[in-house]
Design a protein that fits this description.
Number of domains: 1
Shape: globular
Number of helices: 11
CATH class: Alpha Beta
Largest sheet: 7 strands, parallel
Helix content: 55-70%
Structural class: alpha/beta
Distance between the termini: 69 Å
Number of strands: 9
CATH superfamily: NAD(P)-binding Rossmann-like Domain
Radius of gyration: 20 Å
CATH architecture: 3-Layer(aba) Sandwich
Length: about 300
């Protein structure tokens, strides 16, 4: 009896996995969000590197114009040029702002202004930062400032962007989308990175809540909670456990319009499931990984200081 039940559950799980990751068609996001004949815009924060840049390139390829919001003007300009080269018909607009050094109202106004006279149909709320892995009670002065900046970017700026852009999505009176980039640490915690994990839990819960609020406005809201992705923040080679940014982005966009939260790639979903089933093992592995990341980061900082 038990064996039969387990067989049925396993079969259903396998069927569901096959459907979600292989058979289920991804929404044509341009067709889903375009209003009339006007080419829609996607506004992407943290757009000049890593996941944000991958979202920008992919959405431009899918027919969206792109508003790029990030800190460094030179990186924004380079990203805009790369988009133009890959997708010649796509328009771009760049906005340089340092979320860590700007207050809520300045951030809200900046993104609000960027939305004016543009048909913003999709928000990728991606800008974020983390801290050097350290136990919370052992943060030194520099690391404490990192933690403060992390809360500013991941909580205050994250919320200000939603406050600035969402009214434009609602005012379109047409289907639109929001992707809030969180992290699997929002679900399982991340030892040696407590402030980062807490801020990402905030992102995930806010995303879920506004998803309910905006359902009547036909706004698809998706919380993206991936594990490790090969970016400047995670300096490691892509492998079975670490996804490339383009692969993670494509997996995320496959879920937009279907789900309220996704971990993205199949590998990340399986890792997240394992962490849910046996949290102690996940905690031990996280500690080991974070200690390694800290050691590598300190070595890079020492090498950089030596060159100077």
């Amino acid at each position: 009896m038990l064996a039969t039940a387990l067989l049925i559950v396993g079969g259903l799980a396998a069927t569901w996995t096959l459907w979600v990751h292989v058979l289920r068609p991804s929404h044509d996001l341009l067709r889903r969000y375009q209003k009339g004949s006007v080419r829609p815009w996607a506004l992407i924060t943290g757009a000049s590197d890593g996941i944000g840049k991958a979202f920008a390139l992919e959405l431009a390829k899918r027919g969206f114009n792109i508003v790029l919001v990030s800190r460094t003007q030179s990186k924004l300009d380079a990203c805009a040029q790369e988009i133009k080269k890959a997708s010649p018909s796509a328009e771009t607009h760049v906005v340089s702002i340092d979320f860590a050094k700007s207050d809520f109202h300045a951030i809200r106004k900046t993104v609000d202004d960027a939305c004016k006279n543009r048909d913003i149909a999709l928000l990728i709320n991606n800008a974020g930062m983390g801290t050097l892995p350290t136990r919370l009670h052992e943060l030194n002065d520099s690391e404490t400032q990192q933690a403060i900046d992390t809360m500013q970017v991941n909580v205050v700026a994250f919320t200000a962007v939603l406050r600035g852009v969402t009214p434009h999505l609602v005012a379109r009176d047409h289907r639109g989308g929001i992707v809030n980039v969180s992290s699997a640490s929002a679900l399982h915690g991340l030892p040696y990175n407590a402030v980062y994990a807490g801020s990402k839990a905030y992102n995930n819960l806010v995303s879920h809540t506004i998803g309910v609020e905006l359902k009547e406005n036909k706004i698809d809201v998706l919380s993206f909670t991936p594990l490790f992705i090969q970016t400047n923040m995670v300096r490691a080679k892509a492998n079975l456990f670490i996804a490339t940014a383009p692969a993670a982005v494509n997996a995320c966009l496959r879920s937009l319009g279907y789900e309220s939260r996704t971990t993205g790639t199949l590998s990340h979903k399986l890792q997240s499931l394992a962490a849910t089933i046996y949290p102690p093992l996940a905690g031990e592995m996280s500690i080991s990984t974070m200690k390694k990341v800290r050691k590598q980061a300190l070595a890079r900082m020492a090498a950089k200081a030596k060159k100077q």
